Fold each of these.
Amino acid sequence: MYRHINRWDSSAQNWLDEIEYMKYYASERPVVIRRNLKNHYELSGYADLTLSTNIPKAGKINISTLTIEEFPWEGIYFRDVPVSIEAVPYEGYRFVKWLPPEYGTNPKIRASLPESLELTAVFDPVSGQVSSVVINEIMYRPGEEDCGDWIELYNNSGEPVGMSRWILKDNDDGHIFEFPEGTILDRDDYVVIVRDSENFSKYHPAIDDFLCCFDFGYGREDQVKLFDSSGELIDIVSYTNTEPWHPGADGTGRTLELIYPSYDNFIPESWQASYAPGGTPDSINSVFTAVGNSNFDKDSRLLFYPNPAAESAVVKYRILRPTDVKLTLINSLGYEQLILVEEFNRIGIHAVELDASALMPGLYFCRLETEYGIEITKIVVVR
């Protein structure tokens, strides 16, 4: 230090002053750059953005090229330039909506920002439990033959469920439908709640047992929320009319149908547009029967047929949530004979063919291993 001071005929104070100037330059440079960009591109001004989450450590927010994990976070953007923002829940949580509510329920948004905005990502804990009463079918935009909006619930438990004074809502908490006193949903049964009883009955004349009527409509990007009489959230579905949600339910006269009642109905891969025009109110969903779920009993995830098998056979298995899958054939001595599947699988019904003619006659076991359990079924090969 002193050799340089002597060489350049300077002082320690001058060196400290230069460092302070460099700090000042670095701190003021972003302001100058933003001003130059605004003037060059004739932009109208700046947007002060604050990002936060409703629950600490429940998720992160991606904005443009940045990943924000500590909140609240503040940034300055241009008002005329749309910004991509995405809410990403951590394990054990799920994204519900943005606040203010006009930013919707899609975790990915692209928005031009106002002069000042405090944007909050709302996350909810995921209990890991499948609700006894699930939102099973949604008619949100009927189309030309207007039967009105309606929602179907299904009792996925083995016991009747009392639903007196339960509440159905959309994404506006001021929109409320209260279930009548004495409402009971029997086990493995359905209840349909309609917006317009007259139009619904015209389109579905065979159904006379439904609840009427909610005085609000479900939109293209909306939520279906179900609360019990104490105000506890029982089930929630946040859907849109764009991928990864199935767009075939928007204005076509078809519904969003849950593929299987035990699937996680919060994720879009658990839903499809109904095969049946007008949907299937008060009955089993058309997509459920179309994919062959009726071959499974209530608890099984693994099916082999024909059994016994002599030549070609099929192994069908049901995946309830995305997972790594290993499907193997084990001989009677307990040794692994064949690996039929070893890959990541999404929700749904999967099938693989097995050439039984290449196997020696005898007893075998088909073993399905996933991240959430193991299931084994016994099979017999004959000649």
Amino acid sequence: MDVRAFRFRAYASKTTAWVLETQLEVACRLYNALIHAKEQEGEKSKRTMGRSELR
């Protein structure tokens, strides 16, 4: 029994690419802000924040 695999490359339109880049930028900024908040809290209270406290 032969198994064939096909690969297709999806090309996004300019609008879709812009939206995806914007979402990635927002996610990166949010992640960095949470890391910064965790570091600031650790310096302030000498303890780290848990995952539930970051929400």
Amino acid sequence: MKNYSYKIFFVSRFIQLLALSTVVIFSGCATPKVNVAGRFPANNQRAANLRRVTIAGFQGRGGSNFAAALETELASTKFDGKPYFTLVGGGTSYGANAILAREYGRKVNANGVYFGQINEQVKNEPRQMEMSKCARWDNFVCKQWYRVPVTCERRTIAVTVTPKLLNVATGEIVYTAHKAGQKQTTWCPGETRKSDISMIAEIQRGILHDIRMDVAPTVKILQAKVMDDTNGLDDAMSALFEKAVEQVKFGDTQSASKAWTKIHDKNPLHIPTIFNLGVCAESAGHYKKALALYKQAGNLQAHANDSSDSVNGSGNHISNWLHAATAKAHALIARPENDIATAKVRVEQLITAQSKLKVIEKERKAETDLKHRQVAAIKRHREEKAARERRAAVAVKRRQEAVAAAHKQDLITRYGHSAADAILKGKVKNGMSKEAVIASIGKPQHKIAASSSEEEWIYPSKQVIFTNGKVSYVGN
């Protein structure tokens, strides 16, 4: 019994020492992580669909300042490396009135209008505190300190914002939220307090970030941790595995993936290799492949946990205790199943986000295609209408030309070529008959018979003299 108790004590101490040494080893060599750029949709897709926007203004203390900050935030918002919003208008505040905000949106040709209310509250309260003072100095060094009570001041600034987004086309409020934040600063006599402007700016940054996440898609940088465990590999594969880990540290996941693929070909059941291939797939955006690899690693790990050797309680071999002690010590530090579960949750979120974005992009493309078809239809209708009008104008012109040609031919037949040309030009020339003159400039105001062979016709602007029925003189 005494010997058994001694062994139990030995094992317990060994576990503590091994765990402590393992903590020291692992803390000195952090496991490398891979950055994964995840694309996530906006929290409010109806708001994200309105991308040509303007700021109508915010009512309340600090409203103009917040409106300018929101405009800057939206203007700087990017997705996939491109500006997400187009800001129009600016410089005019319509406050929190939805009717006027919509009117302003129409005026500046915006799809959406942001407006709302803001409230800033400042509260001061005394604080009883203690300060250290020097009771005895010795060669510029304080040798004795004492505490004295002082009355200090605490300043609390709280900001609440109710942003709203109005769809100009429908007049509907598609987004509204309640955002709040506060900051505190405390100062004592002789100290400089933090400025209100800097505190309000800090609060605004948090609120603006929340609004940006609500109304626009974003790219989040997630971190995927690789496993650094060569247990079960021979020396050559272990060296290749560690080289791949070093490559990951320098961002070369492609080379690392090739190395782990080579290791996996010869060691298909090595869990860290399978897991790290999942990390490489995830970093490359192949989320479904990554999830399959994580699930495979998880299944193998679960099987390994179920089939692990247990300590034989009736055995007296110290090797059994050492094996159990080592297993427990490692369990205190590394739990692969936790890393695998975390990775599975992370990549499932990425898959869900990508699925939502694909649906959103498909709907947006369909909406854009519909608008293009509508624009094309309107353009085609206008072009067809213009073509019909051109054809109608050509037909009218041809009819007019035909009528004019027939009329000219009739005049030629009746009065001859020379008289017909003069009639068409509204002129009178010598040799024309009285009928031809009437056809050209109409009937005269007066007729004067000078003799049996001469007759004078008086017009408002000219006179025509006929001799023997033919024009012999034309005067003004």
Amino acid sequence: MRVIPAYFQEGRVLPEPAVGPAMLSGMAHADVLMVVPAEGLRPGQDVKVLGLPWRR
């Protein structure tokens, strides 16, 4: 399982482009954390998200 910063756009959750070494920047702009299972996700698949306290 991976947890990556993500943002909302038009009713969808999309991963932040800034991950890896730039993850701090991605976290600053993220709306939520997206929980990605070990097997990955398919387009359109429901995904679990965790809210961020500074985005309430």
